[in-house]
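Notes from the 1:1 (GR / supervisor)

We went over the backlog. Supervisor wanted to see one worked example end to end before approving the batch request, so GR pasted a single chain during the call. The sequence is below; no edits were made to it. Supervisor asked that the structure be written out right there so they could see what the output format looks like.
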Amino acid sequence: MADEYKELIRSMMGKKRYTHSCNVADMCVKLAQIHGGDVNKAYTAGILHDCRKEADAQTQRSEMMSSGYYVDPAELDSKSTWHGIAAVTYLRDELGITDEDILNSVRYHTVARAAMSKLEKIVYLGDLVSAERDFPDVEKYRAYAMKDLDDGMYRALKWAIQNLSANDKKIPVSTVEAFNYYMDRRLKKKGE
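Structure output shown during the call:
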């Protein structure tokens, strides 16, 4: 199926997004290998995570609202988060993917949530630090993700919240809850 998904997304997006999706899939596989995750699920979620990114806004909104997932008002106000939720509907209804871990990984790859599964963390971080990413300090975030998924999540979420607030963007409740969750895990680890 991996090759089929790769060909499918090639037809759904431009070259830049396709390259990004392939890079995310590769990073997800790498993180799964390092952290003992399911390589096949990591590849599938990584290659498909942005499958609805280039769908028109009306399609994204419609698919998002029929996903069965709760949509936070902050997500509803931010079109840049719609594609992850919309993708769940597409994966389930068009591709027949029913694995909840894959669906959750795609759904939460932009906003995160507390107590994410290993696969969810791998996809969130894989998207953030894929090969073509070149934001300041990306190498540090790659190293954090490779070393420890929970610490990587804490640092990635701290960075995301700072960026959102600096740009006067609303922060979904699940993102705040995720940050608090991974901060608590970090503090408990330091206290051991």
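Supervisor's comment: The first helix runs from residue 2 to 10.
Batch request approved.
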